[in-house]
Amino acid sequence: MSLLNPVLQPPGVKAYLSQGERFIRWDDETTIASPVILRVDPKGYYLYWTYQSKEMEFLDITSIRDTRFGKFAKMPKSQKLRDVFNMDLPDNNFLLKTLTVVSGPDMVDLTFHNFVSYKENVGKDWAEDVLALAKHPLMANASRGTFLDKGLVKLKMQLNPEGKIPVKNFFQMFPADRKRVEAALSACHLPKGK
């Protein structure tokens, strides 16, 4: 074994994860089902979904604790959502289309992100490959450079229509110290307003 070759290779993101897939994201608390496009960024740092309004929500891959599909995925309890997905029909194939991503800072405070694909067995592939990314040893033991790259990737994915990074995204990335962010932006001669 050569000392020049790393023992662990960075995780590879499959092409279909980067290209994205159409899902319906649903929430039992708000009883809202919204069409989204679910993707993983090319470096495998974030699972994110884009709504029809072009609004994006991000989920850090390292915060994912589990992915579930089929009968192990979460089922809607509200009748309104059950009607949307035609769950009460006898020939329904809802279980073949489900995907639940479980995330949280620890194993107690968990959040369930629920998706239903338009095609069968898509949820199974997504669940297996996203969990493989989340459980990769280099994701949990990343270097400082990786964390800087992770921040840059998130900023680059949230560009405004002119192709520039909005200042509010810097403030969202560092919410605890707004004054320090303003000082850093002004020291770099960058705009610090809205």
Automatic annotation (TrEMBL):
Gene3D superfamilies: 2.30.29.240
Pfam family, one: PLCB1-4-like_EFh
InterPro entries the record matches: PLC-beta_PH, PLCB1-4-like_EFh
Domain PLC-beta PH residue range list: 13-141
Superkingdom of this protein's organism: Eukaryota
Xref: SUPFAM superfamilies: PH domain-like (SSF50729)
Residue ranges constituting the Phosphoinositide phospholipase C beta 1-4-like EF-hand domain according to the UniProt record: 148-194
Protein name (Swiss-Prot/TrEMBL): 1-phosphatidylinositol 4,5-bisphosphate phosphodiesterase beta-2-like
Taxonomic lineage: Eukaryota, Metazoa, Chordata, Craniata, Vertebrata
